[in-house]
Write a structure and sequence with these properties.
Elements lengths: L5 H24 L3 H28 L12 H32 L3 H32 L5 H13 L1
Helix pairs in contact: 1-2, 1-4, 2-3, 3-4
């Protein structure tokens, strides 16, 4: 695995977090508290692993951003999504920690109140994380991006 494989891994982790969040929501609607708790802890763990690999990728590429290849309305939509994703990703860290802490302490009334704010933001950040990956690396890569990644993979294999 090279540094260039981390964005795909991070997208997969975001996708897994999304699935876990939906499953946890189903569990709480069914009043299956233990299953909800376990699934939310798994979602939190997956999100923590994502954060470690995201930071590792940024360190590995020395903070250089991958250029976006889309133009026109797609470019505007991408940057609007990216900006909202980044801002809400920063907000979700303290929100998730407080929500998790209140849930584990069984402070159910306060947990439920903040979870109604935290869950949709966390879900949005997870979904848009996957979309950012696909828009940046799959659907609208900048010219030469794929070739650079392939050359780096060859170098890593040597």
């Amino acid at each position: 695995m090279s540094i260039h494989d981390l964005p795909a891994l991070n997208a997969a982790l975001n996708g897994l977090a999304t699935v876990l969040l939906v499953v946890a929501l189903v569990f709480i609607k069914q009043r299956r508290i233990a299953a909800h708790r376990a699934t939310m802890l798994a979602a939190f763990g997956v999100s923590c692993v994502f954060l470690v690999f995201y930071v590792a990728h940024k360190i590995g590429v020395r903070g250089v951003h991958t250029p976006f290849g889309g133009e026109g309305a797609v470019r505007t939509a991408y940057y609007a999504m990216l900006i909202s994703h980044i801002l809400l990703a920063m907000a979700i860290v303290p929100l998730a920690l407080v929500t998790l802490f209140r849930g584990l302490k069984r402070d159910d009334a306060r947990h439920k109140k903040i979870a109604r704010i935290t869950w949709p933001i966390w879900f949005y950040v997870s979904v848009t994380g996957v979309l950012v990956y696909f828009m940046l690396y799959v659907w609208f890569p900048a010219p030469g991006t794929l070739e650079k990644r392939q050359a780096a993979a060859v170098q890593t294999a040597r």
